Amino acid sequence: MDDDLDDGAFDEHAGTAESVGGDVDADLLEEELRQAAAVLDPLPPALLQIAVDAYALHDLDTKVAELSFDSLVDAIPVRGAEAPPRMLTFSVGEVTVDVEVTAHGLMGQLMPPQPARIEVLGGPQPGSSLTADDMGRFAGAAPPSGPFALRLRTAGDMVETEWLRT
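RE: above sequence
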């Protein structure tokens, strides 16, 4: 039996990429699979644009503020409340952002109080701009529709909140 292995009569790896040409054959197979996927299950152009836009927003200096409170999950329901506002709190380091989302818009406050430029991100559309005053307060007349995040530019930091669905 050992003689058969030495002569190459029995090769358990026959036909694999390593035995037929290594990385070259694997690269060819990968390219053929990409082409087949592009024909049989093409990527919708809108989804591709969203992915490109999301990558363009990537900034290594941006701090991500994590959601630490969401009234949909953490609050006790109030009996008789028709459409209570959604209260959100995001935190990163010493910075906290409190946001209230209602059918009439959004308002919030940045802690510690400081001025900031705020962009309401909402997918591929350009975000609306808000300004936080010296007390860190801001308001927007239109509520976000669909998934949204806030990007805050303060004197020293750039902070972006996690994305949420309204």
